[in-house]
Every structure is written in structure tokens, then in C-alpha cells.
Amino acid sequence: MSENQNYDPALLQKFEEEVWNKIPHKEGGKIVNATPLVDLTADLKECAKSVFKLNLDDKDFKIYGKFDSELLSGSIKVRAASHIIHEAIKSGKCNGKRIVIEATSGNFGIALGLLSKLGVTVVALVSRKLQEGVFKELRNENIKIMDLDMDICPAPGMENKADEMAAKATAANIRSQLTEIGFDPQVFDDNLGEIEELLAKQDIINLARFLAEIYNMFCPKQYDNELNIDIHNTVTAPEIDQQLHENGDSLEDYALFCSFGTGGTSGGLSKYMSEKYNKKSVHVVFPPLGQDVAGIRTKSKAEGLTLYNPESYTEHEVDFENIKFLLKFMVDKGHDIGESSALELFAALEMAYKGEIKKAVVMIADGIEKYRKNFEQISQDKPPMKISVEDAAAVADDYDNIIWVHTQYTPKEEGIEIIAKSLGVDKSKITVPKASTINNLLSTQQIPEELSKELEGSKGKSLLVCMAGNTSLMTAQVLASKGIVTQSLNGGITNLPEGRGKNPGEYIQVARE
């Protein structure tokens, strides 16, 4: 290894001192630096009684939380990021002179920020849909952020449908950001065709890899790197088992609950349970189509990823709107859990209530701080910020208007008709501001005058609709911070009954104003 001219022993030493030795890893046949395994049973029973009006006092079950929110960087992603980087430094693929680049929905990028503190430049390709708290943490880690006005996981049906002009506009934006960071724009120009082709597919994951290739950067490739699975098979699962054995128990008798981001956690835990105990004990919890729960994917967005292996675990879909008050209850109790953990805890609690499990460990992948702004808006006396098409249609008369919000796409006449028919309203109730107006709102966090006029009405509430529910939710959050009540339609136009089965290109077009 020392003969490898790219091997950087000084970086390896710093990395092991500052990162590796402070996170869970195997040492002398034992896992050291384990994160807390906390018995949440009593608090969950109290939550069931207080929030869901269910008395579970006579139910015999035990639910632990595995608090990876207490790890360096604040999330479970530091396990995979550190393992991948550790191996890359030892092999010479990553050194102090080589820039690291990755597409990330937040936590993995924040974990890579630990490298930036050691003098390694880290570039993160991120989507504007990230919550502001995630952007703040990325900035705090001194990561160079390339903000793309595209989803890391594109809306269902929109893959390969992005307009050529939109791809060119996004490419120009990326070129500008790369130049500001210090990259040679000529290299970008020489590969413009391939870059625009990836952008037309909204394939940000492979864009990161391609930029790494043409600029000689290192890309961890978290979305199909087998080390992502390996760390949870060889460290995370044995760590939990070790803690349970110290309590006179065994993971053999437990169900494991996690969510899905890249597939590393679900894949590694499933592999351990299969190989060690010959059991299929992992439960993967997804939000339903159209819901944007921080840092994780819906089932439809997991399909097709290399590490997605549904045969290895049991899958569940849980509506975040139904359990966000569980999140509030547990955080108010002093437990540092994020949005995805609330989904998992609800799934485990529901199965325990039904008698389907007796013992469970729930992975607490991250904490609440990044999502504090959303959390503070959870209140019993406010309308939910996200609403299903069925519920929206039932109260359609309560809205002053229905507003299309997107920074890139706008509905054709057919799209306006789909929205109107699905919600049972007249087309005149639907307004379509300029895409630049919505872009201005999200960029400045201020309400443009032209949109302010749209929000004036006697009923004091509007419904926001976009492509898949992401842009409308971000818009609703900005407006809520200004005291304006709106609701975001879950799933957006691509999830409306009148539009299902149709190609989005039939009713959506790129905004051209």
C-alpha cells in the first residue's frame, strides 16, 4: 500500500484520530463507541394514549431506539461515509489533494463534511428541495454546495422527459458554480453533450460520477457502493446484538425497523439477520407516493437503485401526516429523533399493538435539529401543511384559490383541466404564476408582490399544487413563516386520479417566460 504514489499516510492518521476512532468500529473482536440503545416502550405507550387515544397498558412488548442521532455529524450516514472514505484513503483513491464530490439529499454530505475539517475539499450536489436546516448544516461543515434546481430523485414519470432547453439552462448554472469553485470551465465545455444528456434525464447521481471522472475527483458512489451495506452488516447489526446480549437478550428475537435512503442500512441489517439467525426480520418503512419526508425515499423512488432488495425485508408505507404528532410528542419528551424515525416508530408501535411483534429495535437515523423549522409548525390547532387529494377535494370550497407553483414547469390547458376535475372545482379557481415568481420566492425567502396578490382572499387559505408535492411544500413552508396559511397537495399533479396513466408531457411543459 505504501508503494501507491497516491497514498496519503498523513491524511489517514488524521482521519483515524479525528473521525474513525470516534465512531463505532470493530476493535479486538468487539464494537467500540456504540451509540445508545434506549428503551422507548413507556414513552410510546404514553404517546399512544395521549395522541392516538389507544390504551396499550396491557400490551406486552418492548421497543428500543438505536440513537445514531448522537453520532459525529448527527446521523447514521457517518457510518457508511466514514467506511467508504477510510478504505479510499488506505487505497490511495482519496488523498489530501483530490477533491471529493457526491450527490446527496443531505446527511451523507454532512458526514463528508468531516473530511473538509481535515483539509480535503468536498463538493456536494444537492437539490433545492432540501430543508433550510440541512442547507445550514452543509454550510457549517464548510462544504462547497452546488445547488441544482432538480430533484435528486425526479418525479415519477418525468425521468428522460426534461426539456432540452431546461437541461441547457441547468448546465449553464452548473458551469457557473463550478467556475466559482475554481474548476476549469473548458473541461466542462468539452464534455457538455454528456452533461446535458444526464441533466435531460434528471440523473444527478450519475452527473456527480461523470464530473468526478472528467475533473479527476473522488466520488464515493454511495448509491451502489457495497461498503454501504458492509458497514451495517459488520458493525451496526453486531453492535446492536452486542448491546442486547449485555442485557441478557439477543437480536435473534427482535424485529428491526429502518427507512430507505440508499439501501445500505436495510441491506446490511438484512444480511446480518439472514446469515447469523436465518431470519427475515427487517422492516423497511416508506412514506407514501408524493410525500417528502426528509432524507428518505418513497418506494417508487427506491425501485431501480442498485442496493434496493425488497426480497430481503418486509416493506411498509406510513402516512407522515398521520404520525407527525408522534414526532412532536417524542421530541417534547427529550428524544432526539428526526422525521423518518417517527415513521419507523409508528410502524413498530402499530405492529406491537396488533400483536404482530413482541420486541423491536428502531433505527433513529438522525435528530430533529435540521428539521426544527418544520417541527415548530406542528400544532393541533393548525391545518396540516400537506393534504391528500381526497381531503383537498372534500374541502375545495374552503380555498380562495388553487395555485400552481413550480420553478421550471407549467401546466398546459390539459393540466389545468386535470387539476380542476380531480378536485371538483371550476378551472377559473386555478391560477398559474410565472415560474420566475416561484423561483424568486424560494431563492429570497420573500414573497414577490405578484404572488402576494394571488394570496389575498376572504377565506384566508390557498391550495398549492406542483409536479410531485416537493416545490409546493417548500412554498407552503416559506409562506407559513410569513403567517400565510396554505396547504400543499400530496403527490402533486402526477398523483391526481385524472392524470394517472398519462405521460406528464401531455399536460406539462417547460415554463418559457
Number of strands: 18
**Biggest sheet strand line-up:** 3-4-11-8-9-10
Taken as a percent bin, the fraction of beta residues is 5-15%
**Amount of helix:** 40-55%
Low-confidence stretches: 152-162
Distance between the termini: 57 Å
Largest sheet: 6 strands, mixed
Q: Return the structural class.
A: alpha/beta
The gyration radius over C-alpha positions equals 23 Å
Global mean pLDDT: 87
Total of DSSP H or I helical runs spanning 4+ residues: 20
Note the overall shape: globular
What structural keywords apply?
six-stranded mixed β-sheet, alpha/beta, five-stranded parallel β-sheet, 20 helices, globular, 513 residues
Structure commentary:
The chain is α/β, with parallel strands linked by helices. Helices cover about 40% and strands about 15% of the residues. It contains 20 helices and 18 strands. A 6-stranded mixed sheet has the order 3-4-11-8-9-10, with helices on both faces. A 5-stranded parallel sheet has the order 12-17-16-13-15, with helices on both faces. The chain has a 3-stranded parallel sheet with strand order 5-6-7, sandwiched between helices. α13 (about 320-330) packs across α14. The longest helix is centred in the middle third of the chain and has 21 residues, at about 225-245.
